[in-house]
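**Reference record**
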Amino acid sequence: MRLRLILLALLAAALMAGCAGAPTATEPPAGQAPTAARTPATPNSAVTPLPTAIPATPTPTALPAALKVNGEIVALAEYQAALKQIGEAQPGLSPTEQRKRVIAELVDQTLLAQAAFKAGFSLDETALRARIDKLAEQAGGPAALADWQTRMGYSPESFQLALRRAAAAAWQRDQIMAGVPAEMEQIHARQILVQSAEAAARAEQQSKQAGTDFATLAFGYDLKTGGDLSWFPRGYLNEPAVEEAAFALQPGQISPVIKSNIGYHILQVIARQVRPLSPDARLALQRKALAAWLADARQQSQVEELVP
């Protein structure tokens, strides 16, 4: 378990893989992302002296390379260690899938770190020392940390370079995610969701009948919630067509039938206003912002894989 904590710390800048995405059009916002507790580091003088900081512009290095990202190498030792870590954490993955995920993660982490250094991020020897001290504390002492590094195939230099890159990537990730505002225009809507075009046509006809209350009608299709989608901002629902239709309506208006991947929808907008995002909605938008940033960065970058 202690060595597992080291793994988690090394992957602090990774992309929160495996986390739940945004809800579907039929799921209301729910849940709040947990926050990690922090504890003070314990000084440790037994760690190998640190290398100089990675500059914003990559420079040649004598370390054997597994990848090159915009001319900057990712050490072979770091790649091999990441393979061992994912093998221990997810033994059910095939070697091909493990390799694919490790390369994708290292490329994304390097792109984030490069942007961080370009934006002025720095991590001096004192700060990096504190991170290594914290890892040693979690591992059970400097000897346990050194043993783990050896087992994973890290040299002192490649381990410190990996840790510095992870810190820079985490900083850049936080900058991107912080760019999502705390409040946005949101829609509160209700829907009727059916699975066939014929049922949708009947529901649409019912919704247009004079005197029909849409909420009462919606409860006939969904006894539990009456089709209430609660509040949602743009970019939150998994069904873009439903979201687009909702934001085209004003309070009280009812949409025509909307076809999506999960069925046929008829919406009624209850209200729309600028309001604070729920923790779940903001986290979903932050993840989308991060994914979009990385997709753009990968498209504009040159990546060379140097391992078979």
